[in-house]
Every structure is written in structure tokens, then in C-alpha cells.
Amino acid sequence: MLAVLAAASLAAAIPAVPAAAPAAAPVNTKTNPAMFVVSDNDTTVYIFGTFHALDGKGEWFNDQVKDAFEQSDELVLETVIPEHAGKPVIVGPAASQPLRVVAPSASFLASTRMAINAGKAQGMQVGNGADMVLRHAADAEGKPVEGLETLESQINMFATMKPTPATTTATAKDSTLNLSKSMADMQSAWKRGDQSVFVHMLSYLENSSPDTYRVMFTERNGRWADWIRARMQTPGTVFVAVGAGHLAGKDSVLVQLGERGIYSTRVN
Length: 268
Fold this sequence. Notes:
Blueprint: H1 2-13, E1 35-39, E2 43-50, H2 63-71, E3 74-79, E4 83-84, E5 87-88, H3 106-121, H4 130-141, E6 145-149, H5 151-160, H6 172-191, H7 196-208, H8 210-231, E7 236-243, H9 253-259, E8 265-266
Parallel strand pairs: 2-7, 3-6, 3-7
Antiparallel strand pairs: 1-2, 1-8, 4-5
Helix pairs in contact: 1-3, 3-6, 7-8, 8-9
């Protein structure tokens, strides 16, 4: 289920035929994804931008990222999906509530299949994704893990989302190739900590599908900013890890935190 959600998230966030990406940065073997921090006298919240599926090449979980993770009392992901006997289980505030999920829409299923195929073409797997690596590290250390959203809310969001309007008559094969290249470009940008590629993608998505952009980014980023603001009232150190696209652009979590009087600093 986690693989399906991650793939659907990528597919929904990336137009099938994106506008031309900015010129690629010079080749750099250093892997240094962007991380930010907000703090007050007794609370520190690290905010790390993840990539949900990676090719496993390059070591990113080290230096400042590893140090921040080790200093943190808990890990907070977009969604926590523990598996017991092969069945996903919700934990946290919604654990006592039954899971009510609407049937996936045709566009959701199509986007999921396309994203999975595009990712595989680049050797990208959810098992190598930053979210999974962090989750395994937290489990190994006995570090508490919390989710900003429930599994139910994420599935319902993807299943009911309006499809992004088609802008070309390209074949399914062409669309998959375009998506595959876009995912590879964004993975490369993520590894070098380049936020500009995500800003470009978000701008294109907002112009081509305002509703999708609003639901996936503006509204969710606002809820997550509210969560961080509330968490700042409790002493401690927290490591928050959400998709890198949520930390870029004019409606990012960081911008919305600033609008709430909480200002972030880039760590690396």
C-alpha cells in the first residue's frame, strides 16, 4: 500500500508532459537534500524534504541530516503505515476509528500504474525512498513515529482528485517516458538540494490544474504548518519529513509557517 500511495503522489504531482525544466546544474556527486529548522527556547523542529522513491545511489543519510535525526525525540512522516500480518494499520489519534476508504477512481489507478512504470525505468523504488529509510532507522532505535495524515485521508484525497487536464495527444508510452524523465530530473535535484526544480514543477501544476495544486499542496501545507505551530508549544526536538515539493514554492510549509510568525532557516 505504501508503494501505491507514493507512486500516486508522484504521478499526481507531475504533469504528464511538463514544461521544459531549468538547465541542469553541473554534475555534482555530493548528495545533500534540503533541510530546514524552526526553533524557540525549548523546542526544535527539523523539517526535511524527502523523495518518496529513490534509486539507492548516493549516501544522503549522513552529516547534518543524520545528526538532526539522532538529536530528535521523534520522527513525523506524512503518513504512518505499519504492517502487521501483511495488513496496513493506522496508528495515532485515528487508530480507534474504522478505516473507511472510497473506491479508487480510474484516474487514480492510471496515474499509479504510470508512476510505478516510470519509476522502475529509472531504477527508483519506494524501499529506497527517504521516508522508508528514516522509518527503518526510527524503528531500529525505538524512536516514536507519528503521521501528519491518516492512510484513509490520503487514499480518499487521491481517489477523489480531478484528473489533470491533458495538454497533448501524446501516446501512453510517450507520457510514461516524459514522466520517467521528470522523476529522474527531480531525483537529481533532490540529491543536490536544488529547490528550483520543484518550484518549477509546482508552478506548472498550479497553472494546468489549480484544484489538484490546491488540494495536494496549498491546503495540506497549511494543515502541516498548523501542526508544527502547535507542536512548538511542547518542549523537545522533532524530525519532520515530508515530500520535498511541500517545502518549495509560494505556498510551501515554510512560507505558511512564516505567515504564522514562525521563521525557518536552511540547515544545509
